[in-house]
Amino acid sequence: MDRILLRFSEENVAEPITSQVILELGIPMRIVTATVNSSGGDILVEVPKVHVQQIVKAFQAKGVVVKFPKLIEVDSDKCIDCGACYALCPVDAISYDKDYSVVFDDKICIGSPCGLCVDACPARAINLVEQQRNSKK
């Protein structure tokens, strides 16, 4: 599964675009997080890898901006591999490598709706990556 961020504008947020794409393509999508209000919204979804390009094209054709987001950044120079973040991650995006270094899986992380690892890090090595709403990329 791949994660894509669907960004809806104020002009199209009231339209049932997500359900239209699901029904038109017949491809299931798992909604990981969603933040939507009358001025726009973001929906982070997991989609089957084999259908990513087809799904991206369908959303873009309906005016939705599609991104492949990087949700956190880890400064490996600051990280002390203490593991304070490990036990708090609700989606198991953090693990230990064979050498007991902490490993982050960007494809599993849900980013800003969570952020528990950011708050737990005593070295301040983890930062949430803010997704710019004005970017069309």
User: Approximately how much helix is present in the residues?
Assistant: 10-25%
Q: Characterize the overall form.
A: elongated
Strand content: 25-35%
Mean residue pLDDT:
88
Give the termini distance in whole angstroms.
21 Å
The main pleated sheet reads as: 4 strands, antiparallel
- Strand tally is 8
Using only C-alpha atoms, the radius of gyration works out to 17 Å
Q: Could you spell the SSE succession in H and E letters?
A: EHEEHEEEEHE
Q: How many H/I helices?
A: 3
Supply the helix-strand structural class.
alpha+beta
Strand order of the largest sheet: 2-3-1-4
The unreliable regions are none
What features would you describe in this structure?
There is one protein chain. The chain has 137 residues and is an alpha+beta fold. 18% of the residues lie in helices and 28% in strands. It is built from three helices and eight strands, in the order E-H-E-E-H-E-E-E-E-H-E. The strands form three sheets. Strands 2-3-1-4 form a four-stranded antiparallel β-sheet, covered by helices on one side. The chain has a two-stranded antiparallel sheet with strand order 5-8. It has a two-stranded antiparallel sheet with strand order 6-7. The longest helix has 10 residues, at 52-61. The radius of gyration is 17 Å and the shape is elongated.
